[in-house]
Amino acid sequence: MLDAFASGFLVFAFTATALFQLALAFGSPMGEYAYGGQMPGKLPTGYRIASSISFLLTLAIAGHYLAQLGVVPKLLSPELNQWVNWGLVGFSVLAAVMNNITRSKKEKRLWGSTTIAMLIAAVIVAL
Predict the structure, then answer these.
(1) Are 10 and 118 contacting, i.e. CB atoms less than 8 angstroms apart?
(2) Domain residues of the chain, as ranges?
(3) d(Cα 93, Cα 99) in Å, to the nearest integer?
(4) How many other CB atoms are found less than 10 A from the CB of residue 69?
(5) Cβ-contact 28, 20 below 8 angstroms
(6) What is the DSSP string of 29-85?
(7) pLDDT-derived band of residue 37, with 50, 70 and 90 as boundaries?
(8) 27 C-beta neighbours (distance < 10 Å), count
């Protein structure tokens, strides 16, 4: 039951993150909320390309958690699925650390607690 709630939360959180990255990729002036907050406003082309890649990655991660819920079929064997779940815990650790040590107050306010909640949910799913 708890793992289903955690997976649902992660689907929501990664989908929201994907949409945020898509907005950045299309030139939304929210640069102070990403990449350390060093580029307020519209991001330069290189960072917009990185946001496009992040959009695809976070959408794929949301799909993985949808499979955990049984909404879409699982593509991985149970053993590989467990490895991926723990890999996503590692990814969540990195995201939580990076978003909580940033000097950008706006980025930290937006993503700091969110990434910690995502980390906790990822651990619950992996267990």
Answers:
(1) yes
(2) 2-126
(3) 10
(4) 15
(5) no
(6) S-GGGSGGG-S-SSPPHHHHHHHHHHHHHHHHHHHHHHHHHTSS---S-HHHHHHHH
(7) confident
(8) 13
